[in-house]
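Box S2. Input/output pair 1.
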Amino acid sequence: MSKHIAIVACSAEGAALCYRTICAEAPELMGRHMHPEISMHTHPLGGYMEHIVAGNWEAVAGLMLSSVSKLARAGAELAVCPDNTIHQAFEHVVEKSPIPWLHIAEAVARKAKKAGFGKLGITGTKYLMTGPVYPEVLESFGLQWAIPGQDDRARIDSIIFDELVKGVFTEKSRLYFNEVIRKLRQAGCDAVILGCTEIPLLVDPEDCPLPVLDSTRLLARAALKQALA
């Protein structure tokens, strides 16, 4: 028996990658063609962005709670959100959620600690790179962190919202991410967090200047492990 996983989605590409990862990796643990029950719900990204831009994280939490409540009524027993930025509302969500959650940054931090990394570069939306989601978790794990400079943060944010969330992945943007990650390596980072759930669809780990911590797939694997615990 396995727990029914709820995916509280925000943007389509990252949520789809999380779903595909669970389904693709589960058979090795559960048997041919097998995976846990999975249900997904999402409000429009535009609804989330209205509240994110306004800094209204309680309203963001309200959307997340709306989704998880519907999924719990469908039988889900464990929730994940494959979107790093809206984890800034996580504390407002877990205290009212009908089912338990896994935190995406904790899945990343555990992997980093196990791999022996000490200082992590953070990439993602401008709200994530300058926000508390990763710094708070990484510090609790004894890990250091760094973020790109202001101009790089602005361009990364533009690539995410103008390209990646729309399923557009260009070689120009991939090479730009590699250049930013090279700067993070020069700043002393020994790994980089792909902290927007679409970035793993752009950055190639084989070509990246630093080892990558793929937040989307790490969350999916954590959910699968918890579902089978």
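Box S3. Input/output pair 2.
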Amino acid sequence: MMNLENLLKSFNEISDYRIINKHNESVEMFYVHESIETLRSTDTSNTYVTIYVKNGEFLGEATFEVFDYLNDEELNKLISDNIFRASLIHNQYYEIPSDNSLIKHNKTNIEDYSLKNVIKKVSHALKGVELENHSSLNATEIFVYKKNIHIVNSKGINKEDTTYSIMIEAIPTWTENNESVELYEQYNTSEINEENIKAEIKECLNNVKARYLAIKPDFKLEAPVLLHILDAEEIYSAITAELNYRAVYSESNYYKLNDLIQSNPLNDKLNISLESFINGSSENRSFDGDGITLSNIKLIDNSKVINYAGDNRFAYYLGVKPTGTLPNIFVENGKKTVSELMNEPYLECLSFSGLQVDIYNDYIGGEVRLAKYYDGEKIIPVTGISISGKLSDVLNTIELSKEYEVKNNIKAPKLIKLSNMNIF
């Protein structure tokens, strides 16, 4: 990397540069039913260079990959070509970061084992899931990743971090009376927890059974709507996207500082933060792609917008301190337990074709592929329905469970209840 740095420094046209080296290792296991079809490992390294070319009041940039097989002549030509590309870009000038604070390593229990031993533990957990007569895992794929990222730039940043994660993809299947239905499940985590893995897969198998039994209701459904964490994330992500420095700078952000996300909350008030590390998140990191050391920031406090967040470039334009691009969302819990949220009639949505949250049109809704309707006496699996509502009204009714859950890059209440929704 030092040779590459010296080469970049030899080009007078380059005002600044950034070099990112990514070294990725993985162990991957592929099942067909209960038989291992493939077990393989990978080990790859990639180097990406971003060059910055100052042109008066403008700053151009270009990013390209540098391959080991390039000779000196090819590498010089690659850099020269990208200097030309960068000179055609006329972004408003900004300075790249010089932050070089100490990095705190975020430990995960995955690093206590070899990647092969991790995948064995995951496989063992999957084999421990009890199957009913008509259920099966038609195909399962397990990926265990170790990712090292090293970033240097011309302002003195020199940072390195290693992260670990597990991804499981499964196709739970229910076959009965010569008819099969399937669902797709992807589970991401940065912790080995065999009980959590078993529970996740068991829930998928229960859902595919419900999908087989589901009916298109010929009666009116009237009840609050329950959303699980990954569907509720659509709401949280839509809100936090409006509080990004880029949106603020372009004056396209719907929510402004001191605005209330809920105008008249009837139950729980929203409290949302962006964080660099959440135990179990598959997206944890210590610094972002610019090399900015990440630190947690609360955006919404008791429904009130108290902060914005964002990357180095747009922070520079706004004249504020960059928070960096934080990867995780944390939503504080509510007052009621899951069982309390489910002690009256509800529609528990389990699978959407896509939940839409449109802040500008004050809309929330989508087509529900699978749900469980509780009428106060019995639970009926249903399909082929849709929900919709006025987002501002719905947010005022939100109830958040006491129990937390971590999925992908979010820690939030396991279940939320929304009222004022139309079901049709």
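Caption for Box S3: The radius of gyration is 25 Å. The chain has two domains: 2-213, 225-423.
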